[in-house]
Amino acid sequence: MRPSPAGREGGRRRRAAGVMAESNADWMGSLPAALRTYPLSNLAIPGSHDSFSYWVDEKSPVGPDQATAIKRLARISLVKKIMKKWSVTQNLTFKEQLEGGIRYFDLRVSSKPGEIGQEIYFIHGLFGIKVWDGLKEINTFLEQHPKEVIFLDFNHFYAMDDSHHHFLINRIQSAFGSKLCSVECVEYVTLQYMWENKHQVLIFYHYPVYQEYSFLWPGNKMPAPWANTTNVHKLIQFLETTLEERSRYGTFHVSQAILTPRVRTIARHLIRGLKNTLVHRNLPMILNWVKAQKPGVMGVNIITSDFVELVDFAATVIALNDLLLEEDESATKS
Fold it and tell me: Is the keyword Lipid metabolism assigned to this protein (predicted)?
């Protein structure tokens, strides 16, 4: 008996998840004592780009993040299948990403126009799962791994008025409760600080309503400059330049180690999709750039990637923290 498409997809995901060693599930809790008092803004932390896009709904309408022309075209079912190939940037679920060591999540959300109620969904061209379902999955992991800390970056909102925002924020509060870390001086936020206060979640919210809630960090505390290029050499130059320009104090910093397809890229490689056109070919060079980095005040902090399981991305980023220990040792000797 042949497995169903859903079964085959799940099997592929499980094999992919195996590449990301489950030993990374508790990597923050396992860091050497010396690093527990470093600001989280000075540690190297792996993240995923469009973190929720492992599943998108071909049957639902095209999202409000798309141009009108795309919405018209998408009435043809083949167009949605092609959109899926370019909308999906991850293979792993939240749970699988967390077990593999990912701690920063890039989130875009939307209401579903025409739907009764205020339910909010993840979105990237096509609608993903309900945000509430994703938050519950993340919280289950945190319950089982009390020393792990995550960053949820809500940075794009579509078809949402203030009532939708309040609905979503109440969902966030219901999911995480006292695990939410209130806004604080960035330099005070260390693993030690988080553990002492039994906090595990930092929420960044790129919309003015954040001012009404003590646990919503403003979006400008999590700058994530975007190269918007298909060229890996231009991407690496951009990552270098933006690192040189990062604020020494007062913010976290995201290095988006991702390539973005142009319209003509998609037109030339319609059926191949993002992974086969841009990601597979360029990941080794991107990973080499990551290996050459150092965390610290003017170094890398959060680094994001597409398809985080294709190479040993999370483990490579986590290992950069050892350089901080070497720095400490050499400072002690001198």
Answer: yes
